[in-house]
Design brief:
Helices cover about 15% and strands about 30% of the residues. The protein is of the alpha+beta class and about 200 residues long. The protein has one domain (about 5-200): Fumarylacetoacetase-like, C-terminal domain (Fumarylacetoacetate hydrolase, domain 2, Alpha-Beta Complex). The protein binds zinc ion. Zinc ion binds near residues 5, 85, 173 and 174.
């Protein structure tokens, strides 16, 4: 099982971090030890002083495929869920300055809380509302209609480089409104108005 992530896939978020709009999907991965499931608590690790939440629509891959053609791309999705892409912004900044990969900033243990999955059947991939709440307040309110690279684009692109396997996850990018977490915070994730994820920071 692999966890793919797409960076800077909403223009408003790329802008808020002063990043250019990418011309092709920006891909990184998290190891399986990053997974945090069943709404388990997140214990703030020593490795960072500036961990941010990024709420994202996560796709679950339902079958194996490589070099997937655009017209078949959506048939590889068998569920959508809500995921947090926890990011150690201080480490990421240092990696960027040194031209280093992001893994330590993005792939540390439990940096990938993921919810249960909803069926993808009947869902319009280009009109999914995604909301992140922090301590009950809406901090991110996005829609997949604003994605720079659609689910279809992402699957076609990824499958040119990696064989997609049943059970793989794809984080599709975060809308604007990311911010830091502190011990005692409560994060919640909603897809199309349905609460799917809860994560308390300990
Ligand atoms: Zn992200």
């Amino acid at each position: 099982m692999k966890i793919f992530c797409i960076g800077r896939n909403y223009a408003d978020h790329a802008k808020e971090l002063n990043n250019p709009i990418p011309k092709s999907p920006l891909i990184f991965m998290k190891p399986t030890t990053a997974l945090l499931i069943k709404n388990r608590h997140f214990f703030y690790p020593e490795l960072s002083k500036d961990i941010h939440y990024e709420g994202e629509v996560v796709l679950k891959i339902g079958k194996n495929g490589r070099h997937v053609q655009p017209e078949f791309a959506l048939s590889y999705i068998n569920g959508i869920g809500f995921g947090l892409d926890f990011t150690a912004r201080d480490l990421q900044q240092r990696c960027k300055e040194n031209g280093h990969p992001w893994e330590i900033a993005k792939g540390f243990d439990h940096s990938a809380p993921i919810s249960e999955f909803l069926s993808f059947e009947g869902i319009d991939p280009d009109n999914i509302n995604i909301v992140t709440k922090l301590n009950g307040n809406i901090v991110q309110d996005g829609n997949t209609k604003d994605l720079i690279f659609s689910f279809q684009d992402i699957i076609v692109y990824l499958s040119q480089y990696f064989t997609l396997q049943q059970g793989d996850y794809i984080y599709t990018g975060t809308p604007a409104g990311v911010g830091p977490i502190t011990v005692g915070d409560r994060l919640e994730g909603y897809i199309n108005g349905q609460k799917l994820l809860k994560c308390e920071i300990m």
